[in-house]
Write a structure and sequence with these properties.
Oligomer: single chain
Largest sheet: 9 strands, mixed
Number of domains: 1
Shape: globular
Number of helices: 6
Distance between the termini: 19 Å
Radius of gyration: 17 Å
Strand content: 25-35%
Length: 216
C-alpha cells in the first residue's frame, strides 16, 4: 500500500467527509481495516487500522496494533516539555500506562490521540463513531499528564493515508478485510493479539484465509 499525504486528513479537527456526502454513504469511517496475509507492504503486514476518515477525497487511519518500540509516554512528555524529568514519578497511572503506537508511515513526527468520547476539546477533537474520537493537540497530552484526560486512549505517531479511490482499489484486490470497530480492540492491552482477535471478530480462520478471500 502506498502511503500518501493526499488531503484525507485536514489537520486535527478537520477530518470530514466531502461536503454534501451523507455519512456512511459507502465509506468506512469508524471501521477497522485488517491486513490480508498476502499484504506485500511490510509496513502494513498484520496491521489493524482504525479508519478515522474515508470519503471521495481519500482516507486516513491509525494503526492500533504496532507499538512504537522503545518510546514510552512519560519520556515523550518530557521531550515535549509538558513535564520535567522529576515529574515523571508523579504521573497518574493512566499516563504511565499510556500506549504509544506507530500509527502509520505518514507524518511520523506528529502525534494523534485516539480516545473515548468522555474527553472533548472544542475545535480540536473530532468525533468519529461509536464513542471514539481523535485529537491531535498538545492540550490532550497535558490533560492526560494531569490525570484529567479520557478514560481510554492511545497515542499514535504518524498515520496511514490513501489517495482518492486508492483504499477501495486495495480492498477490491484483496489487500484488506474490514469490520465494525470494537473499542476493546482499539484500546486493549493485548497488542500482540489484536490481529487474531480482529479476524475472530468476523469469523475468519487465518489458516484457511487465502488471497481469494473477499472483504467482510
Amino acid at each position: 500500500m502506498k502511503a500518501t499525504r493526499k488531503k484525507a486528513e485536514k489537520s486535527a479537527g478537520g477530518l470530514r467527509a466531502a461536503e454534501g456526502e451523507a455519512p456512511g454513504a459507502g465509506y468506512l469511517d469508524g471501521q477497522l481495516l485488517i491486513a490480508m496475509p498476502v499484504m506485500d507492504d511490510e509496513r502494513f503486514a498484520r496491521a489493524v487500522i482504525y479508519l478515522c476518515a474515508h470519503s471521495s477525497e481519500g482516507a486516513m487511519g491509525i494503526i492500533v496494533n504496532r507499538p512504537a518500540g522503545s518510546i514510552d509516554f512519560p519520556q515523550l512528555l518530557v521531550q515535549l516539555d509538558i513535564i520535567n524529568k522529576a515529574e515523571q514519578i508523579k504521573l497518574p497511572g493512566s499516563a504511565e500506562d499510556m500506549k504509544v503506537m506507530k500509527g502509520g508511515p505518514v507524518d511520523t513526527g506528529r502525534g494523534f490521540v485516539l480516545h473515548s468520547s468522555d474527553f472533548f476539546i472544542k475545535d480540536a477533537t473530532l468525533p468519529i463513531d461509536d464513542g471514539i474520537c481523535l485529537t491531535a493537540t498538545l492540550d490532550i497530552l497535558k490533560a492526560i499528564a494531569a490525570g484529567a484526560g479520557p478514560k481510554h486512549a492511545i497515542l499514535a505517531l504518524g498515520y496511514a493515508g490513501w489517495a482518492p479511490g486508492q483504499l477501495e482499489n486495495e480492498i477490491q484486490h484483496n489487500g484488506w478485510l474490514h469490520c465494525p470497530a470494537d473499542p476493546d480492540l482499539i484500546f486493549g492491552d493485548d497488542v500482540d493479539e489484536k490481529y487474531q482477535r480482529a479476524l475472530d471478530k468476523i469469523g475468519i480462520d487465518l489458516a484457511m484465509l487465502s488471497n481469494e478471500a473477499g472483504h467482510a
